Amino acid sequence: MSQDIYxxxxxxxxxxxxxxxxxxxxxxxxxxxxGPYHQQLEQALCDYLKVPYISLFNNGTxxxxxxxxxxxxxxxxxxxxxxxxxxxxxxxxxxxxPVFVDVDPVSLNLDPAQVNSAITKDTAAILPVHCYGHPxxxxxxxxxxxxxxxxxxYDAAHAFGVECHCGSVLTHGxxxxxxxxxxxxxxxxxxxxxxxxxxxxxxxxxxLKNFGHEGETVVIETGINGKMSEINAAMGLLQLNHIDAAxxxxxxxxxxxxxxxxxxxxxxxxxxxxQIRANYAYFPIRVGPEFPISRDALYHxxxxxxVHPRRYFYPLIPEFPMYSALPTADKxxxxxxxxxxxEILCLPIYPGLDQASLTRIIALLHxxxxxxx
Length: 373
Ligand code: T4K
What we know:
Aspartate Aminotransferase, domain 1, Aspartate Aminotransferase, domain 2
């Protein structure tokens, strides 16, 4: 019986490499609160990602909440309905109101024209997502933010290492937020980061994630505990040694999917959107009406046969109960996002997905097509 295949499997460095770093943590007793590995990882990530300042976090969600808080956002935040629920939850946690606008039907990222038309006197920020690691239309969205004096925070949870026409996509907007969760391209088990443009902002974010402390006896803000531990930081340092090889393996899987699914009517691979360097974080396909069975039928067909794709992102965020009463949650106002949520299926992609597994996944898609004709 062949093993089940999941949408992802975390990349892990060789265990013996980790053991060496653990020994040092045990010797020093420095477990958290900006220890040596934490500081090394911040610098190493700035170098790798080509960004000026990074503040590490214990996860991407707390990093998002802290980023909004650091900019003093109060009011309405224009955002995408087509994302993981953490994007909108961060808006609610900062006591702001999400304003959903539709996505571009091809890139599935926020449509700048829709963002522009949604701006009112109450708009406090724009929170786009680089969905699947495909860059949002950063030039257009940054320009809208600049024109109206509205901060832009990018949820870059999927966009580790992604570069667009002008370098790292993480240098856009006022702040960008990364996730280093186990399911991400670069993982520290749990983790995240805020990418900052100035030393002042980095210092402020560092204070906010450390209870608002400024030194030993002064507390300047109602901060939170968002600190990354030394264990997670050590894992990050090791992961960085392997990241280029891991992304190269993802690229090869992406290439094969595109090539081997090209002749399957009704299956449409979501196109990249303008990245110069991609990270192949996800492999989303759209199951069109020409495919003999529905997206959900295909999802169950595959699961029953031991392959577990995921419907990222279904249901749409506005359908969840804490959002559904908002005036902008009406799905008829979000037709492109609603259609994507009904058609999308993310196929397994991760370093270590072997050739036999890839062939099995692709064969299953062909079999499913044949089963419905
Ligand atoms: N913004 C966006 C746009 C995001 O996508 C996310 C997170 C965030 C913000 C928030 O960042 P964090 O606070 O998480 O750092 C997963 C992740 O939990 C979540 O991090 C991620 N986005 C989201 C898209 O996916 P689930 O509920 O799909 O995870 P789960 O546990 O079902 O895992 C999926 C598959 O991965 C499993 O079937 C098997 C495999 N897996 C998973 C884990 C956790 C493993 O093999 N090992 C593991 O340890 O949410």
